[in-house]
Amino acid sequence: DILYVTAAYGRGQGRGELYRSLDGGAHWEFVTDEFGAERWPSSREIVIVPQDKDGDRISDVIYVGAWAGNEGGENGGVWKSSDEGASWRQIGRVEGNSELWKRANVWVLRSDLSNPDVLYAGLFVYGDSDAPGGIYKSADGGLNWTDITDGIPVPNVSDIAVSPDGRIVYATTNTLYSPDPGAGIYKSTDGGNTWMPVNRGLQKTSLKFQVLLMDKDDPNVLYTGPFGSGAKAVYKTTDGGAHWYRTTFDHSGWWKERFSHTWAMAEGADSKLYVATWNGIYRSDDDGETWLVRPQGLGNVIVYDIALDPQNPSTVYLGLGDRGPWKSTDSGHTWRQIAYGYYEPYGEHSGGVAAFAISPSNPDVIYSAVKGSSGDTLMGVNKTTDGGKRWRAINTGLPGPDPAWVATDVVVHALIPDIAYVGIRIDNGTTGGVFKTTNGGRIWTELTNVDAEGRLPRVESLAISASDPDVVLVGTRQPGRVYRTSDGGTSWSLVSPPEDLMDPNTIVYDMDVHPLHPEQVVIGVNTQGAYRTTDGGQTWAQILGADFFQDNVGDLALNPEEPIHARIRAVKFDPDDPQIIYVGHDNRRGRAGFGVVKSTDGGASWAFVDPADLQYRNIFALDIHPQTKELFVGGFDGVYVYERYFLEQQ
User: Is residue 524 assigned to a domain?
Assistant: First the structure.
């Protein structure tokens, strides 16, 4: 039940962090951040020595292979704790040179189970860096290291497997995105003194490997998977690498075709095998001969928006990054994709949903702002008039393809479904725009009078009043401004919080107008939390800042030494009571956030809405159903629903 994982804060010469769980991953605690770490979370560079003098089940001795980065950092090499992680010291010398070892990027660290003082380190080298590369061995618990790379022509050693008796050692190499004729798998039968390639049966054009798994009962049985999209397979050997063969999938189709970039492999206590890839988790129940896709229950489903059918409480729409629109008709118990006409999956028009606008008067009418997929720009607005059965593009009057732009948000009139607004952002500049349609999207007209200077900053968010749909607000990014119209866009006023409250470089991520009180608005911004106005923007108050999160960092598994950003990506009023406000925190991509917090006094005080229920806790979307009062929460790991009774107890 005791687990460890490392993670990096930042890229290149990023600071590393070590986390530990004592209950099988249900809860985590922060351990240390003294070393550098490779930017993808991993446990391949952690060695736990089975020494437990006090009998508390936590091993006294822990080694971590660190990552110095590509800028000459000196927090790499190997770090050791002899007191269960309470204190750490950087250890190790290469031919007596400890300074050189500090610059090493340790990709994998393994121990000899027959002798815990024997360690192996696989290193990574950036370009022409003078940091050491290849594979190194220590016979004295990491104090001194010897280069045993001779025979392996590639300096980047990504994984190591050691037989139980310590005699046989395997090493995989991975040159990442550059070709290298020497890449592949290597074997030593004398503890690393000599090496020979063992690549027979592997696809010669895909000899890059990130992981290697040795069977726990038979060291001659090993598994690996290429790091790349060329060979869509898991390979197995039963004779110590003399011959490899390709295993099979239980079916063909999308999951087989998308199998690429094998990140991790593991064998369970029941001998079932697991493989983690860029596109999902696979499991084998027959010693790796066949593989089944098993993604159910996993996160990494990025929910950018949630739309609730105001007339049917069981109908919910999700806008997903890279996966388009989805729909549930049973309150979220099951989901199906509704992308017919929306985009071409993994084709030229692949994309995701930036925002939905569902018509309160006719919920079958939904507008959607379309966002790009995986860095690609996909411009436009889509619309359905049958609850998502069919979508069509409605872009007449919107800008052409050059320069590239993206639709960031869309809102619809509460009483007239033909009236809608869309905000856009020009990707290669500092401008954007707001467009309006009065005929259901057949033609869009730019509202050039929103800003007094005639050119809007890039639009990030829109909001519209349910009780007075002529009230529309526009939020922009860098500079962060808020504009308001009370006549459907004929005239506009700048109603931003003053600069002494809100930095001009702010991004206004989200806004909500209370459905019963159009003069009451709450906004969430990128660094300074949340603001509220009760008079239509004439005056503002900051109701939530970084101090609240910093004061509560000890309640969650977060590094207390790192600055906490009050980055609020989602805000929502309770539809009945404007004193009740929910906000969704997003610490930043790559670091866990604080989840959802709630105020019952207009922002004077705040409390968490059970963050233990959420996994990643970075929140992008909030919505409350007007009938059931259920709170829907969308973020980096899917969607959650909180019932009204539960919320009233918080």
Answer: no
